[in-house]
Design a protein that fits this description.
single chain, mainly alpha, about 0% strand, globular
């Protein structure tokens, strides 16, 4: 096991989730897509949005794919300060 695996297992136990229901590769891919194609701070926020959508009944794979596609189509060349309100 890796540190990430250990963390996910412990975090799931802490909040009462079944580790087998966590689509780790899909979440990591989505976070990568948003961080690289939109803005880095958008990655954890988008992962949270994915969790909310799934909690409300969305299919995890479909929601992640739709958000990744949105990130892939996001316009490039935006002013970094406008795209990243934390800078």
């Amino acid at each position: 096991m890796t540190v990430l695996d250990d963390w996910i297992t412990a975090a799931c136990a802490e909040v009462g989730l079944d580790r087998a229901e966590v689509p780790v590769p899909a979440v990591l891919d989505l976070a990568r897509d948003v961080a690289h194609q939109v803005v880095r701070p958008g990655a954890p926020v988008t992962a949270y949005l994915l969790g909310l959508a799934v909690g409300r009944g969305a299919d995890p794979a479909d929601a992640a794919a739709r958000l990744s596609a949105l990130a892939a189509d996001w316009p490039v060349g935006l002013d970094a300060e406008l795209a990243d309100p934390t800078s």
